[in-house]
From TrEMBL, chains A, B, C:
GO terms for molecular function: ATP binding; hydroxyethylthiazole kinase activity; magnesium ion binding. Catalyzes the phosphorylation of the hydroxyl group of 4-methyl-5-beta-hydroxyethylthiazole (THZ). Belongs to the Thz kinase family. Substrate binds at M48, G195. The gene is thiM. Its EC number is 2.7.1.50. Pfam families: HK (PF02110). It comes from the Bacteria. This is Hydroxyethylthiazole kinase. Keywords: ATP-binding, Kinase, Magnesium, Metal-binding, Nucleotide-binding, Thiamine biosynthesis, Transferase. NCBIfam families: PRK09355.1.
Length: 265, 265, 265
């Protein structure tokens, strides 16, 4: 059912560590610091260039670009358009994270427009993915649906837009429209720290910067984050110490440990 | 002098955990991540929707709304007006945190306008509360007055605007104009981490979403945060580890422990 | 080669602790929280006033001002101009941190304009400093040059603009155009947490608020941060726990310990 194996995830992480890809993030005010720290910990180089004066030019030189709709404003939404145009023009891989699409009208419209531009990877929770095919959407930023329930929508979106779709949840589901990969390392504490999903989107952009297969980029990033989540949870007293330990683990995890611990199906 | 007892605080916390209220935050760029993590830790669901295109509509479906003036911009100030209009229209409880009111002209004017719209709860430090009755105001974001000195101003504001007023400080003072409640669990380390007061405002919005009595919402949230502060301080080496432990404690504290440790008068 | 000694750094830190200077920060969305927490930990009082309606007036009452170009927007860039005008008018010391100058056109232009206004201290990495003399500039926010290579550019900028120039790196190099001071406490983990350099800029503004010699302010802040970095690294498992320990150490470090551990040349 899948040709992506644990060893491929290990190689993907090794590539990120070796090349330290420059990841441009147009993300939200809530998770900008966390996202930058996650990227640094895993071995990438973050750059939060999200104004319309610079975003387009920077997307031409970045290794990968993240577009995250968590807190859009007129100014940053304009920057997102510029960044997508620049990325498309230069062939820079880019990731769309349509936070709360379906729950709010303006960003749902923005998400639709950006999706039509063909992101390399679309990452969201089940409700967000379903909303982009015309589903009902979630309550705020949290999913009310399961990844399993969104898989058909994901396959449809993947085929329609030529994008990999990564649905985050207890079991992550990822597809390029043909292949389907499940990553079963999700820990409940991952939902008790804000921005874990947002940071995953940024990690996928970093992995996509150094890998030819966008599905492997999404799977490798998801595997790295969730395996580190498992390890961090083992030592954490609560969500505060979990977030700290997660950053530590992202820096400490070796490719061999990743291959050993990831559960793919 | 008060009809709010420790057991009421325990029940309030239990209600938040049970219902996981959706709290819309229009807050500042400094504390957005911290506020979201505090809300998640205590059991609420944060959503930082602070653009004028979406804030009004979201305030109609949120459980509670926080308006925090820490870093206002033209765009987000417009969103605050929309959110207050939406909350008022839908009967959504909302909290006003007039950060640095009195010290800066523009936000003092905004705070006055928002206060006139009748927030469910006004939360600030003593200088901010006094400034809203025409007092002198503090130095920047820190209070130069004690909660005791601001109590008369708080009672006046409560009566005039039909709002609960929560004055944060070494001993928190809270009033609905008739009842006065003091919470005596404030630890000095709470002032060495940015955004603790801002996060309290968000917690009050979450508690108000699931409780009928806004004074109990403010007291319950204050009790929860400050009791967790006491517990976190016991194990902390400094402000960094204190902030981490505070998030852990917010997730770990049981209603029974809260009732046991809170000091009300 | 230098008349600044370890004991001067100790005195500088003691002055900050005694006077708790009010530091206005116009900084980026990535590091705003971290910067505020660093300032609180070291003993200063942060206030992130970065809108054009208030920034100019606040710069007249602040002890020091930080202008950081990490994520400029039209609105905050206008606020920066106001803040510089207010600071200049009132004689408030101010620090310019030209994040990614040279790599991006708009901010390079802004940085040039602000630099011409004569900041008290210019703080950046080697690539940023070199870019401001017409050098090539770095890749995103990371330096591709060494502080040693940028020293001539720094001395030139210091003389031309009457500013102290602080070049961050493995060995920090600081100059007022006449004196050159090197601080050799830089730890590699400092580059694995976002915003350490940005927070240093804010610390320099705080030190400059209470000291007459801007070079001592820059050296004292750099010494304090990097010595705390050494101490934090000794106990850290990775970048997450390092950042937490760094905040703790900033609050725990005594002036005597600073004098004992700083390596000046």
């Amino acid at each position: 059912m899948t040709d992506i194996r644990p060893g491929d995830c290990a190689d993907a992480l090794a590539q990120v560590r070796e090349h330290s890809p420059l990841v441009q993030c147009l993300t939200n005010i809530v998770v900008a610091q966390w996202t930058a720290n996650v990227l640094l910990a895993v071995g990438a180089a973050p750059a939060m260039v999200d104004n319309p004066q610079e975003a387009g030019a920077f997307a031409r030189i970045a290794g990968g670009v993240l577009i995250n709709l968590g807190t859009p404003y007129a100014d940053t939404a304009a920057a997102m358009e510029q960044a997508v145009a620049g990325a498309t023009d230069a062939g820079t891989p880019w990731v769309l994270d349509p936070v709360a699409a379906g729950a709010l009208a303006w960003r749902t419209e923005i998400a639709g427009t950006l999706l039509a531009a063909g992101p390399t990877v679309l990452r969201g929770n089940a409700s967000e993915v379903m909303a982009l095919t015309g589903g009902a959407g979630g309550k705020g930023v949290e999913s009310v649906d399961t990844p399993e329930a969104a898989l058909d929508a994901a396959v449809e979106l993947a085929g329609r837009h030529g994008t990999v779709v990564a649905i985050s949840g207890p079991v992550d589901h990822l597809t390029d429209g043909t292949r389907v990969v499940r990553v079963s390392n999700g820990h409940p504490l991952l939902t008790k720290v804000t921005g874990v999903g947002c940071a995953l989107g940024a990690m996928i952009a970093g992995f996509a910067a150094v890998l030819d297969d966008p599905l492997l980029a999404a799977v490798g990033a998801t595997a790295t984050l969730t395996v580190c989540g498992d390890r961090a949870a083992a030592a954490a007293a609560g969500p505060g110490s979990f977030a700290v330990a997660l950053l530590d683990q992202l820096a400490l995890l070796t490719p061999a440990e990743l291959a050993d611990r990831v559960r793919l199906s």
